[in-house]
Structure formats: structure tokens, C-alpha cells
Design goal:
Elements lengths: L1 H31 L1 H8 L1 E6 L2 E2 L3 E3 L5 E2 L1 H17 L5 E6 L5 H6 L5 E2 L7 H6 L1 E9 L1 E6 L15 E5 L3 H9 L4 E5 L2 H9 L5 E5 H10 L4 E5 L1 E2 L2 E2 L3 E7 L6 H14 L2 H9 L19
Parallel strand pairs: 1-5, 1-6, 9-10, 9-11
Antiparallel strand pairs: 2-3, 3-4, 6-15, 7-15, 8-11, 8-12, 13-14
Helix pairs in contact: 3-9
This protein binds glutamic acid.
Keywords: Signal, Transport
InterPro entries: Bact_solute-bind_prot3, SBP_3_CS, Solute-binding_3/MltF_N
Pfam family, one: SBP_bac_3
């Protein structure tokens, strides 16, 4: 009896400690300010890819280029303008596919634009502004490959994709005859494809178009269709920490403006060769998440 009381007491103490921790965590969040607080304070930490040409790329001189870089820069500057704040300094953080939810949840970045598809399980962990872009899963093969022409020809082949990405999951779920090799980044998949260690790379058409343009003549993009329909729909969102007051609304407002003032089309033209694989989406409509 005594023992169980003691356990109950220490459980209560633990609960109290946990509550205190939560409270401290809350205070920390307000100290780092969330997205709006960071923009107001003049320095915001944003996540993107570092190795995806045309989307998120860290250039040799350290500068950042790509559609996602331009979109999220536009968003934070638009939020600053709306509030009468200076445009903030941006600190970039590389956010590979498998790390995105974690770095948002632990506050290492205030927002992510990183070819980040909105889906159910991710929406349980983080919030999404957008979607601001729609693309579809496709294949990248060596340009002299005449055999891989679509879904059926993948049977028995070695396919590369990235850990924690939606295309990798889709392959596991629907193509049991395919040998999937998962890497941390798409650029390592591209090298494996170039060296003949894998037969194809699968991810979003936007990303594959960027790699194909980077090495002219080496690779080609092959569409993936199932019963005449796109194999997947990849709706890109701006990842945000849950319970970041005002952030979601402000981001969606900025994305509306991005579409209506012509900036999105301009960024697509500037970053993606022929706009390959890019469709506009419906900002604020998350009805496809089931
Ligand atoms: N859009 C897909 C995803 O979010 C593939 C691209 C990526 O891994 O970043 O998983």
C-alpha cells in the first residue's frame, strides 16, 4: 500500500516535472518566436534541399538557388512587408527528406520549402501552407536505356529513391517485384544511376527534370502512368511547426499573392527548364489529404 502510494506520488512528481517542461518548452518557443517572431526579429531559419538543381541547390559559392528557395524567400519577405518589418536575414538549413518533420517539431527551422509533399501522416506531425505546386512521380533512366519505358518494365529492376520520401513509400506499397535501394539524398541516387549501380531513379518529375538538365545527354525522364492516370499526385506545401500562431494564415496569404502577382510563373521560368513537371495548385485546399 505504502509502496503504491509512493509510486503514485512519484508519478505525480513526474507529471509535475513534465508539465513544467512543457511550460518551459512553450516559453522557449515564444523566445525563438515561431515564424512571425523570427521574421520580426530580423533573422529566420528556413529549411530546403541543397542538392536538387532548379528546386533547392547550394551553389559552390554558398549562395542558394531554386524554385523552393525563391518561393520561401518571397513568402518571408511578403510577410515582412505586410507587417511593416524589414526583410529578414535568412539562415538556410539543409533538410533531407527523412528529417523534415523532426527539424520542424524541434524548432530547428521555422519553415520548410523542400519539394515537400503534403500527406496524411506528415500532416499529423506538422502543418502545411499551400499547396503551391503539383507534380507527379516519374523515373530517371540513362539516356541509352530503351527498355525502361514505364511501370511494367520496372519488374526485377533496381530502383533508387530516398529514405522518408513519398515515392519510395509508393514503390514499396505497389511494386513488390522491384528492388528498391534507398539513399539519403537524390544526388547520391543520380551518381548510382550514372555508374550503373541502379537501373532507374524515381521521384517527382520536377526533381528529375532538374538532374536531367544538369547533365545534358546523360539521362531522360520517363513518365509513370497507371491505367492512363498519373501514378501519384505530389502537392508541395510549406512545412510549419504545429501551433505556430498566425504562421499558417500568413504563409497562405503570401502564397496567394505569389500566384496572383505573376511571381510564381517567373520563378518557374527562371529555375526549371521549360517548367517541366510543374502545375499550379489550389492554395489552402487540403481536401486531397485523406
Ligand atoms: N515530394 C516527395 C516527398 O516529399 C519527393 C521529394 C522529396 O523527397 O523531397 O517525399
Amino acid at each position: 500500500m505504502k509502496r503504491s502510494i509512493r509510486i503514485a506520488t512519484s508519478a505525480a512528481a513526474a507529471l509535475l516535472a513534465a508539465t513544467t517542461l512543457v511550460a518551459c518548452g512553450g516559453e522557449e518557443t515564444s523566445a525563438d518566436g515561431g515564424l512571425l517572431g523570427q521574421i520580426e526579429a530580423g533573422n529566420v531559419t528556413l529549411g530546403t534541399k541543397y542538392d536538387q538543381p532548379g528546386l533547392g541547390l547550394r551553389e559552390a559559392d554558398g549562395s542558394m538557388t531554386g524554385l523552393d528557395v525563391d518561393v520561401i524567400t518571397y513568402v518571408v519577405n511578403h510577410i515582412a512587408d505586410e507587417n511593416g518589418w524589414e526583410h529578414p536575414e535568412i539562415t538556410w538549413r539543409e533538410t533531407p527528406s527523412a528529417q523534415r518533420e523532426t527539424v520542424l517539431q524541434n524548432g530547428e527551422v521555422a519553415a520548410i520549402a523542400a519539394t515537400y509533399s503534403i500527406n496524411k501522416s506528415r500532416s499529423e506531425a506538422v502543418d502545411f501552407g499551400g499547396p503551391y505546386l503539383l507534380t507527379h512521380q516519374a523515373l530517371l533512366v540513362r539516356s541509352d536505356d530503351a527498355e525502361i519505358t514505364g511501370l511494367e518494365s520496372l519488374d526485377g529492376r533496381i530502383l533508387c529513391s530516398v529514405t522518408g520520401s513519398t515515392p519510395a513509400q509508393k514503390v514499396k506499397d505497389t511494386l513488390p517485384g522491384v528492388q528498391l535501394q534507398e539513399y539519403d539524398t537524390y544526388s547520391s541516387c543520380v551518381e548510382a544511376l550514372r555508374n550503373g549501380n541502379v537501373d532507374a531513379l524515381t521521384t517527382d518529375a520536377t526533381i528529375l527534370g532538374g538532374y536531367s538538365a544538369q547533365s545534358p545527354g546523360d539521362f531522360k525522364v520517363v513518365e509513370l502512368k497507371k491505367d492512363g492516370e498519373e501514378f501519384t499526385n505530389e502537392h508541395y506545401g510549406v512545412g510549419l511547426k504545429k501551433e505556430d500562431p498566425g504562421a499558417l494564415e500568413a504563409v497562405n496569404k503570401a502564397l496567394d499573392e505569389l500566384y496572383s502577382d505573376g511571381s510564381f510563373d517567373k520563378f518557374v521560368d527562371e529555375n526549371l527548364d521549360g517548367g517541366q513537371g510543374v502545375e499550379k495548385d489550389t492554395v489552402g485546399d487540403l481536401s486531397f489529404v485523406e
